[in-house]
Amino acid sequence: MESPPPLSAEACYRAVVARDARFDGRFHTCVTTTGIYCRPVCPARTPLFANVEFVASAAEAEARGYRPCLRCRPETAPDYSAWRGEVATGGAWRGTANTVSRALQMIDEGALDEGGLERLCDRLGVGERHLRRLFRAHLGASPVAVAQTRRVRLAKALLHQTRLPMAEVAMASGFGSVRRFNETFQALYDRPPSALRRGAGEEAGAGVELSLSWRPPYELDALMAALGARGDTVVGGVWSRALDREDDGTEGRVEARAGRGNTLRVRVEADRLEALPRVLARVRRVFDLGHDPEALMRDLGEDPVLGPTVAARPGLRLPGPWVLDDGAVAPADRWPDPDTEALVENWRPWRAYAALYLTMDEETDHAKCA
User: Fold this and answer.
1) Which residues, including other chains, have CB under 8 Å from residue 324's CB and lie 6 or more apart?
2) CB neighbours (10 Å) of residue 340?
3) Residue 363 has what pLDDT?
4) Cβ(42)–Cβ(20) under 8 Å?
5) In what order do the strands lie in the sheet with 252-258?
6) Long-range contacts of the stretch 73-77 (C-beta < 8 A, 24+)
7) Tell me, what's the pLDDT at 276?
8) With the C-alpha atoms ordered 233, 155, 159, 211, is the resulting torsion angle positive or negative?
């Protein structure tokens, strides 16, 4: 399979004009005349093509001096944890995309908060200079800047969707102190975080409840069934899991169910709010919220074996592991049978999804025979 083509500025602009939710989170639109960056689905009037530039990540937009749009709220866009190196540079994506994807998931779980960049590089098996180069080339920002953007995204979501006190918002989103939290928001939004709070939200003390977005199509019922089949607790359309202090950094409970629109509604009850970023990152992985159906269809849709099945069920998702290991191959690219791994090289980096679709084909054939 050839290296994926980069998204052109023309293709990005067409997605912005159409407000195409399939591209939400895959890139951001920076408006040069206002200094604001937006999601492709922003409801504001579409800017002129001459007045925009497109970037791979929110961190890159902020590194270029753009502020997040207060209308489309980029922090609510689907995550890019399954990012595969599709924009701007292309390149040797088979190696670098796995490295960047694994690094992003580790950053989500607080790798930079716990051990710094050196420890993260040790876990990835790469040097600090190389990792910085990969992030600059493919995401337009350093690992530290990406981590900071993600803290801000979570804090902004907590400000909008909960009534947690400001000190607890700072703690839950990964900021080391309230002072740093306030300074970051003042620098980015030119206003204190309290000015961004909205009236709606749950009462403090009732747990934290947030909406996490996905890109359509998405077959949540099928994924819930798969999670139940593998042994997860799924009752009445609600997935739940007990939290363990040793593995999760906190005791408590997390549950997820269908939300409004293209969202998963997640409630976390934890005795340590500092563990919230890790718990949410694991929920995103379990429910495959960072998956890009458009990229999967592009890479596997024309395959003679998988194409028809992928086209018929583009919304299938891969149940992810709760705990991410430090393996060199990302979960989406893992093949269940080492003896035949060399035969499915052409399905990279979607080999785990290919196995899912092949299993579905086999079940369909067995049903026909019965």
Assistant:
1) 102, 105, 106, 109, 282, 285, 331
2) 9
3) 63
4) no
5) 208-213, 263-270, 252-258, 238-243, 233-235
6) 73/39, 73/156, 73/160, 74/28, 74/37, 74/38, 74/39, 74/153, 75/152, 75/153, 75/154, 75/156, 75/157, 76/157, 76/211, 76/213, 77/24, 77/25, 77/39, 77/213
7) 95
8) negative
The per-residue pLDDT for range 92-131, each reduced to its tens digit, is: 334 566 788 888 888 988 888 877 899 999 999 999 999 9
Q: What is the pLDDT of residues 60-90, one digit of tens each?
A: 999 999 999 999 999 888 876 544 444 333 3
With tokens 């990005």, the residue in question is 12
* Residue 254 burial (CB count, 10 A): 25
**Distances from the Cα of 179 to the Cα of 158, 160, 189, 204, 346, angstroms:** 17, 20, 15, 22, 50
Structural tokens at position 65: 């001096």
